[in-house]
Amino acid sequence: MGQLSRELRQLTRRYRVSTLLERLGISQLRDTAHTQLKSLRKAKNMKRKARDRTKKTLAFTTNP
Known about the structure:
Elements: H1 2-17, H2 20-62
Helix pairs in contact: 1-2
């Protein structure tokens, strides 16, 4: 996840200094990296929430 964030920041910097023609390609790369980062964050959050939900369920069943 950190690598994707770094890549997205680098692409943003390159986008600012690039020409109009290069911006088209860089914007597509940025969109792809952003989509991957979003899906990775979502998966990570879902996994964390499932783990927390399991902990709460276990705590309730051991001591209702």
